[in-house]
Specification:
It contains 2 helices and 5 strands, in the order αβαββββ. By secondary structure, it is an alpha+beta fold. It has one domain. A 5-stranded antiparallel β-sheet has the order 1-5-4-3-2. A hairpin with a 4-residue loop joins strand 2 and strand 3. The longest helix has 12 residues. About 5% of the residues are buried.
């Protein structure tokens, strides 16, 4: 039974490395999350910073069933490596509401 709960309590973490300073990576993520939707655009994601180094991105699903919506939230933590480059450690959690 516990193997079925691992998806919820132990989501897979992925790490992305960038050959850029942490401050620049953080600034670029902030730019993307602050973009406005145009008249012909669609809202397919929303995002925000939880603190200076951690952000969350919510995927807004295009389809929904009667009264039930499925989506996912990606949480990313921006860390600085010993060499001064940035890494983003992400975890995804699926939600149903």
């Amino acid at each position: 039974m516990i193997k079925y709960f691992k998806t919820f309590f132990y989501p897979q973490a992925m790490i992305y490395s960038y050959n850029l300073p942490k401050e620049l990576v953080t600034a670029r993520i902030r730019e993307v999350l602050q973009k406005k939707i145009t008249f012909f655009g669609t809202i397919d994601m929303t995002g925000y910073f939880l603190n200076d180094d951690t952000f969350a991105v919510n995927v807004v699903p295009a389809a929904s069933t009667t009264g039930v919506r499925f989506g996912s939230t990606l949480v990313g933590e921006i860390i600085e490596s010993q060499k001064g480059s940035a890494k983003i450690k992400t975890k995804e959690s699926k939600t149903r509401h």
